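Ticket #4471: structure output looks truncated?

Reporter: J.K.
Steps to reproduce: submitted the chain below (250 residues) through the standard prediction queue, then opened the result file.
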Amino acid sequence: MKLALVTGGSRGLGKSISLHLAKKGYDIVLTYKNSKTEADKVVSEIEQSGRKAFALQLDVADVNTFPDFVEKLLLALNTQWDRSELDLLINNAGIGINESCANTTEAQFDELMNTHLKGPFFLTQMILPYLKDGGQVLNLSSGLTRFTLPGFGAYSAMKGAIEVLTRYMALELGSRNITVNVIAPGAIETDFGNGVVRDNPNANAFVASQIALGRAGLPDDIGAAVAAIASDDCHWINGQRIEISGGMRL
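Returned output as attached by the reporter:
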């Protein structure tokens, strides 16, 4: 049995990732920011599949809460699994702000930076003592670091930074046989950006027209791929940006 921590695991991509990891034999600790009800539903679904799961509240944008979170995490590991280490950390939690560079406010910029760069940096730092040698870190980026769409300049800048950080983490953690990679989803039908790809037929059709496989991505397209990358078969993949987009804007 392996044990994964998935941030933002109560909905969207994080939920799909958690469920697919469970199918591959992982037990899951998932975090949620606001909705304990949704998180508990994911826990229940995982448990119905025969794996164990536990949900903890976490705001990845607030590094001041990390010491308390890690304390609660270690308590959960001890009481639920009788262990003190994780095999896999997935820095998935995120937000989307669609605003032009000309109109992005400092508050919006800081929120994106704290959520997508500062939070994953320091959370990973705090988790490292409890990550097994030979384990994995997977960070989440975006297809928008390779191709551009109006209104995502600040968001994509943070994701570009996490891609650079991933390579440095991979180099520095190699001595512990820990791999670090970054997953870059393309346009997916989730509630990201107020659900525009999922709920707006015109936006969905535009996205589909940009993808070689002819449709927008679904959460399970990402969840299944991440679970495959998290397997031992992929341990020799390290320090890489892996885009999962169906061939968007080739």
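Triage note (M.O.): checked the attachment and the full token line is present. The chain is about 45% helix and 20% strand.
Status: closed, working as intended.
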